[in-house]
């Protein structure tokens, strides 16, 4: 069995704002080609994703960032799919050396191509969804910086096989903690 996926894409953005208010509006597009071969059986389908989005940011030491994205999927000979993905983040910088942040958001993505175009039930799968929250801190001391944060994510509509052999939606949860130390000198990071 072999699977080939090819995703050329394009993004266009407009930026604007004044004083402590900034905004971005744009769209991303991808042309996908899904091709799955099992022995002499070949299934293939072109697909397009056209995702418009808008974001706004306001503040200085306390900054609010919010946005929404329309995530889409258009596959040949299948009904179109579309879902809104809102997100927001709050950053607070009480001093030059400390920044605290919190964020929450929703995202969507296409199901696995092997299910989407490889099986007849794939035409009825919706976009997979993830809801996430997280928070963390960043500390800066001269050329050194340390950032750490935790997050948790709840997933829905994950394409999986049901007990009767048909495709359906499953659930999942993931939790993590990340840390990073960075050193920045004039010519080296």
Task: Describe the 3D structure.
The protein has 189 residues and is an all-beta fold. The protein has one helix and ten strands. A hairpin with a 2-residue loop joins strand 6 and strand 7 (98-109). The longest helix has 4 residues, at 113-116.
Q: Tell me about the biggest sheet?
A: 10 strands, antiparallel
Number of helices: 1
Order of helical and strand elements: EEEEEEEHEEE
- Helix proportion range: under 10%
Arithmetic mean pLDDT: 92
Using DSSP, what is the number of strands? 10
Radius of gyration: 21 Å
SS content category: mainly beta
Q: Gap between N and C termini, in Å?
A: 43 Å
Q: DSSP strand (E) fraction?
A: over 45%
pLDDT < 50 runs, ≥5 residues: none
Overall 3D shape: elongated
In short:
It contains 1 helix and 10 strands, in the order βββββββαβββ. It is mostly beta strands. A hairpin with a 5-residue loop joins strand 5 (62-75) and strand 6.
Helix-strand layout with pairing:
Blueprint: E1 2-6, E2 9-18, E3 21-38, E4 41-59, E5 62-75, E6 81-95, E7 98-109, H1 113-116, E8 128-141, E9 144-161, E10 167-183
Antiparallel strand pairs: 1-3, 2-3, 3-4, 4-5, 5-6, 6-7, 7-8, 8-9, 9-10
Keywords:
189 residues, 75% strand, 10 strands, 10-stranded antiparallel β-sheet
């Amino acid at each position: 069995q072999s699977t080939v996926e090819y995703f050329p894409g394009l993004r266009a953005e407009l930026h604007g704002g004044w004083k402590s208010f900034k905004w971005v509006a744009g769209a991303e597009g991808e042309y996908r080609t899904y091709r799955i071969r099992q022995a002499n059986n070949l299934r293939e389908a072109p697909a397009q994703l056209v995702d418009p989005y808008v974001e706004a940011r306001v503040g200085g030491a306390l900054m609010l960032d919010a946005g929404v994205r329309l995530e889409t999927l258009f596959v040949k000979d299948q009904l179109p799919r579309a879902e809104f993905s809102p997100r927001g983040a709050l950053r607070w910088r009480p001093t030059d050396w400390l920044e605290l942040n919190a964020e929450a958001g929703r995202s969507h993505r296409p199901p696995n191509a092997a299910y989407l175009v490889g099986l007849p039930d794939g035409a009825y799968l919706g976009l997979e969804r993830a809801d996430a929250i997280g928070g963390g801190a960043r500390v800066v001391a001269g050329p050194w910086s340390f950032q750490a944060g935790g997050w948790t994510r709840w997933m829905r509509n994950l394409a999986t096989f049901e007990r009767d052999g048909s495709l359906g939606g499953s659930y999942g949860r993931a939790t993590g903690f990340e840390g990073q130390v960075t050193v920045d000198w004039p010519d080296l990071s």
